[in-house]
Amino acid sequence: MMRVISCVTVEHNLWLVLVAALVCSAGSWATIRLFLRAYEATGLQQIGWHFLTAVCAGSSIWCTHFVAMLAYDPGAPITFDPVLTIASLFIAIAGTAAGFIAATSHAPRIAPIVGGTIVGLAISGMHYTGMAAYHVDGIVEWNTTYIAASVLLSVMFACLAINVALNERISGRKYLAAGILVAAIVSLHFTAMAALQVTPLATTDSHADPAALQAMALGVAVAGLIIIGTGLASYLIDDRTRSETFQRLHHLAMNDALTGLPNRANFNDYLDREIDRASELGCKVALVGVDLDRFKEINDIWGHAAGDMTLKTLAGRMSALLQEGEFVARLGGDEFAGVKRMKGQSDLLDFVSRLEAALMAPVRIAEVETATGASLGVAIYPTDAQNRETLVNNADLAMYRAKANVTQSVCFYEQAMDEAVRANRTLANDLRDAVENGQLDLHYQVQTSVSTGDIRGYEALLRWKHPTRGNITPAEFIPLAEENGLILPLGEWVLRTACAKAASWENPYKVAVNLSPVQFAHADLPKLIHEILLETGLKPGRLELEITESTIIADKIRTLNILRRIKALGVTIAIDDFGTGYSSLETLRAFPFDKIKLDRSFMSEVETSPQAKAIIRAVLALGQSLDIPVLAEGVETHSQLSILRAEGCNEAQGFLLGRPAPFGEIFSLVDRQEIGSAETQQTVRQAAAVA
Q1: For residue 507, what is the domain's CATH number?
Q2: Got the DSSP string for 380-396?
Q3: CA 216 to chain centre
Q4: Residue 61's closest CA among 19, 89, 82?
């Protein structure tokens, strides 16, 4: 050890040693960065980065060696063999190239060791080839122990440097690895120089010019730094390009491409940070959910280009009004969100009013002036919610309440009012899984002849048994299904199940199925009915579809066209709930219905209200005039049935005749032959329903 220290301090020019150390440090720093870039790259790019790494590393090692050799004073004249000197440079470049390539192979456990060993041997090979090119006018002796130690140190430090560079868990690994690589080069060189012992010849009386050697050393150092700088410049240019590309990609990932506003991902990150900040400081943060009211109309009337321009304009307005602690994002479509750090209620009201003013002002596009309007819902952390998800959901609930309010465009979250909406949303989600989970069932209610008591058919009624809430009435879940786009799969399931069950009955009774107005919005309804009839084997004449008059009024021409196509299949059509709503004679004239179903509300008053009885008489007379049979719903007493018989009503349906029941409970009744008088059959059916 003392020999190495003595070699450095006594036998070397310390200024040139410092120059060599500078070249070595700069080269090692650049080499590690280029090597890591090569490690991350693939294909031709990886080859290119490996080449730059090898040139930088080899030049650094060679220049360090050459400058340090010029700093060495053997006490005798020196010369260099040009061929071996140049060969040593190529050994350094080729050897480090092989080592760094090996270190990036697909064997992560041994690759750094193999690569480091090759790099260490390359440093050693370069040094001792360079020493072979070093000619001194004296007797040269080598200490093999120091030679072995120098090679061992070089290999050991090179392996450690590569392992550290590739270990992402080490903080500051790039700097640490560069320092260890410097140790590999320096320890090899000066330990190897300690192995060298020069005895000048007695006849030697001239020495090399120190100034010339120093100039040569500085020239080599400058050349080496230029080469290192070239590699480093390539790294920095690529790093800048990568950084700019990352920033562009990050901007695209975190901002809306159309409006330039932060997108949903950006919004979520920002709101999380604001909630954390509010939690730490004990303050509040408000979330404002925004939904444009008439944006679809703009797209439909003026086109999507006008819609895009409207969004850009509104986004620009909202961005322009932002103050410190305020944030606006586009969540998608015509949905936006604003976030406000609250100092007080007045601050929040000011922010909301500014947003409202920006959104309500007309937007001029070319020669057209449009006005969208907006609904705003406000929820406050931590008053209304304890986390981001709940806060967003509560702001949405308040916003939907504002959307439903014709006089108020801004609503604050109110638990009592908005929890009902939340419950409906939850119920709608449960309804999506109800078919797959076997929670839906059909109950059947008998329809009989008033005069004879004969069974004419059964109406299929949908029932839902919720796993936690029990039985849920159709009046509660059918509107939810229509609002949430579930009525189509639900209606198809009802139609297919009812037809399949009816096809299995021994007696050819009709089965009546209600259709939702939403189902008529799809032109393929007749095709679906035809496919179900073929699939189940039910004769078309046994299927009766019930629709309300409002279904026809919504889109008369389209609906009547669909009804005609359905009737052409042989299916019968009944108008349901007649006597309520429009009850237009034009509807009966426009389409040849097969049955009129009198609404149950008239039967509940027929025994006490002359007006109700008169209306029933009028509807029955209308049916007789048009040759359309009439079925009265809601028959619950013998007196009501007697009135219907006296007035000449064709059919009846109600609790008196039979309560809705599952298929299994009415099976024996369906297969039973028709018997006796109306009163006898009523008793039989009632007993079967109760049982």
Answers
A1: 3.20.20.450
A2: EETTT-SSHHHHHHHHH
A3: 63
A4: 89
Tally of residues, the chain: 691
pLDDT in tens, 73-90: 666 666 778 888 888 888
- Same domain (yes/no): 397, 455: no
Give yes or no for a cis peptide into 382 (omega within 30° of 0).
Answer: yes
**336 within some domain:** yes
CA distance 643 to 639: 6
- Tokens, residue 354: 């500014």
Domain boundary among 356, 379, 413: 413
Domain CATH code at residue 385: 3.30.70.270
Short-list 351, 354, 374, 353, CA closest to 363: 374
Same domain, 444 and 387: no
Note whether residue 637 is domain-resident: no
Region 224-247: mean pLDDT is 65
Instruction: Say how far apart CA 193 and CA 7 lie, in whole Å.
Output: 7
Query: Where does residue 682 rank: exposed (0-12), middle (13-18), buried (19+ CB within 10 A)?
Result: buried
Report, as an integer, the average pLDDT of 442-449.
94
Q: Which of 263, 334, 330, 331 is closest to 296 using CA atoms?
A: 334
Q: How far apart are CA 342 and CA 381, in angstroms?
A: 10
Contact 534, 561 (CB under 8 A): no
In angstroms, the CA 659 to CA 446 distance is 8
The C-alpha torsion from 213 through 217 and 223 to 226, rounded to 10°, is -150
Q: How many domains does the chain have?
A: 3
Cα-only R_g, the chain = 45
Within this chain, do residues 393 and 479 fall inside the same structural domain, yes or no? Answer: no
Q: For 214-218, 320-324, 605-609, which range has the lowest pLDDT when averaged over its residues? A: 214-218
Domain that holds residue 287: 264-413
Cα-Cα-Cα-Cα torsion 8, 11, 14, 17, nearest 10 degrees, comes to -60
Contact assessment for residue 421 and residue 393, using Cβ atoms and an 8 Å cutoff = no
Report the distance separating Cα 372 and Cα 429, nearest Å: 30
Q: What is the pLDDT of residues 249-289, one digit of tens each?
A: 666 778 888 898 999 999 999 999 999 999 998 899 999 99
629-682 pLDDT, tens digit per residue, is 999 999 999 999 999 999 999 999 999 998 999 887 775 544 443 433 344 355
Q: Which of 73-77, 570-574, 582-586 has the highest mean pLDDT?
A: 570-574
Q: Is residue 630 part of a domain?
A: no
Q: What is the pLDDT of residues 476-488, one digit of tens each?
A: 888 888 877 788 8
User: Do both 577 and 545 map to the same domain?
Assistant: yes
135 and 278 in a single domain? The answer is: no
Question: In the chain, what are the helix, strand and coil shares in percent, each to the nearest 5?
Answer: 60, 15, 20
Q: How far is it, in rounded angstroms, from Cα 457 to Cα 597?
A: 14
User: What's the CA gap between 646 and 426, in Å, rounded?
Assistant: 49
What is the pLDDT, as a whole number, of residue 251?
Answer: 66
pLDDT digit string, tens, across residues 133-151 = 777 767 777 788 888 998 9
- Per the rule left: phi > 0, alpha: psi between -120 and 50, beta: everything else, 503 is alpha
342, 301: one domain: yes
Do 431 and 395 fall into the same domain? no
Residue 297 lies in a domain: yes
Measured in whole angstroms, the distance separating CA 648 from the mean position of its chain's CA atoms is 63
Computed over every residue of the chain, the mean pLDDT equals 82
**pLDDT of amino acid 241:** 63
Q: Are residues 343 and 461 in the same domain?
A: no
Give whole-number Cα distances, 263 to 218, 245, 283, 334, 656, in Å.
56, 19, 25, 12, 61
Pairing assessment for the beta strands 543-548 and 572-578 based on DSSP bridges = parallel
The whole-number average pLDDT for the span 294-318 is: 86
